[in-house]
Amino acid sequence: DVGSKADRGTFEDDEAIKRIYYPEVEELVLKETGAKKVLLFDHTIRLAKPGANRAPVNRVHIDQTAASAAQRVRFHLPEAEAEEALKERYRIINVWRPLNPPIVAHPLAVADSTSVDDEAMVGIEHRYPDRTGETAAVRYEEGQRWWYWSGMEEGERLLLQCFDTEGGARVPHSAFVDPRSEEGVGRESIEVRALVFG
Q1: pLDDT digits (tens, 9 = 90+) for 50-100
Q2: What are phi and psi of 71, to 5 degrees?
Q3: Has residue 183 got a pLDDT over 70?
Q4: Among 48, 79, 160, 192, which residue carries the largest CB count within 10 Å?
Q5: What would the mean pLDDT of 132-155 be, rounded to a whole number?
Q6: Which value, to the nearest 10 degrees, does the dihedral of the CA atoms of residues 135, 138, 143, 149 take?
Q7: DSSP code of 180?
């Protein structure tokens, strides 16, 4: 169980998220990974309701590719520091948590990274005013193994590794509709994205 000082109101204000919740996420990632440094670079709140700005993504994907992960390092660090960081191990990890537990509607499914071949990845370019990024869609192939966390509660967190320079491990993931469950209240969740060094 991960304790938190962030209450429901915290997640309605970006500055409160950064001031109250980001330090908790940074501490958790440092503890769980043994990293030397963690840099939180953004977050997304997802709401499963009509008209939501960002809804759960019902498409299998990985948030970063090798190219976009290196680009993230260069984008968020000063040039000299970025070039040194790129010589060492770095990862991108998303920390995912429910905001209205338990999660029943649109739970998050994750694939066993070792069961998804690199050939199943399809790069998707994203153009922004100040940069071009890339995510990966994932084609279904026989032998892929999938799990999900049923009824995820308030004090539970899921760390999704999107990229790792050591071994290239990455976790394909997607929201989905579970036909065995009543959908209930629409899912509300937050994911915080972290550059993890060392």
Answers
A1: 888 999 999 999 999 999 999 999 999 999 999 999 999 999 999 999 999
A2: -65, -40
A3: no
A4: 192
A5: 94
A6: 70
A7: T
Neighbours of 66 (CB within 10 A): 15
Please give the residue that has the higher pLDDT: either 139 or 168.
Answer: 139
Say if residue 97 is exposed, middle or buried (CB neighbours under 10 Å; 0-12, 13-18, 19+).
buried
> Which residues, in sequence order, are CB contacts of 147 under 8 Å at separation 6+?
109, 110, 112
Instruction: Give the DSSP H/E element, type plus range, for residue 14.
Output: helix 14-16
Question: Contact at 8 Å (CB) between 52 and 189?
Answer: no
pTM for this prediction: 0.94
How many C-beta atoms lie closer than 10 Å to residue 135's C-beta?
Answer: 19
Looking at residue 70, its amino acid is: A
Of 97, 70, 93, which Cα lies nearest the Cα of 152? 97
